[in-house]
Amino acid sequence: MEMEMASKEQINEQTIANTYAAMRSEINQIYSKITELEMEVNEHSLVIAAIEPLDPTRRCYRMVGGVLVERTVKEVLPAVKRNKEGIEEVIARLNEALEKKKKELTEFELKYKIRIRRGDREDSGEDASAKKEGAAQGVLVGPA
Questions:
Q1: Contacts 24+ apart (CB under 8 A), 13-18
Q2: I need a surface site. Which of 39, 40, 66, 141 has the fewest CB within 10 A?
């Protein structure tokens, strides 16, 4: 009987540890995605700053689904601004989800009396390598 109880406790502890690790992993994934999307917002801001002062009738080229398309600054600028706003909305939703997951993790830690040793905890996903250059939509401005 004692062997069975010890075995069940060990399985229970292992289940708790696995669940906790999965929760932390999910939080780190959300951090990584937020970082990646913030980089895209920065790229969009740079493009907007570069083409806003230009003549609206000036030709520019935009990458759409892997195809380079010729447009004018007047046509491209609103689309880039819309994309940037859409990405910012996604970031806001991800931040909400992140806060919810952090709260769940804290409650889980309290429920099962989980303590993390200093140095083990990765509260920040800032160092995640989220450099995804191929997925960005590029804009190339042609000569006047």
A1: 16/112, 16/114
A2: 66
Between CA 40 and CA 34 the distance in angstroms is 10
Rg of the chain over Cα atoms, rounded to whole angstroms, equals 23
What is the rounded distance in angstroms from the CA atom of residue 130 to the CA atom of residue 144? 35
φ, ψ dihedrals at 71, nearest 5°: -140, -175
State the total domains in the chain. Answer: 1
For residue 87, give every residue at least 6 positions away whose Cβ sits within 8 Å of its Cβ, in sequence order, or none: 37, 40, 41, 44
One pLDDT digit (tens) per residue for the chain, 144 residues: 556 666 666 778 889 999 999 999 999 999 999 999 999 999 999 999 999 999 999 999 999 899 999 999 999 999 999 999 999 999 999 999 999 999 999 999 999 888 887 764 444 444 434 444 444 566 666 666
Q: What is the residue type of 51? A: I
Round to whole Å and give the CA distance between 69 and 50: 18
Is residue 34 one of the residues assigned to a domain? yes
- 133, part of any domain: no
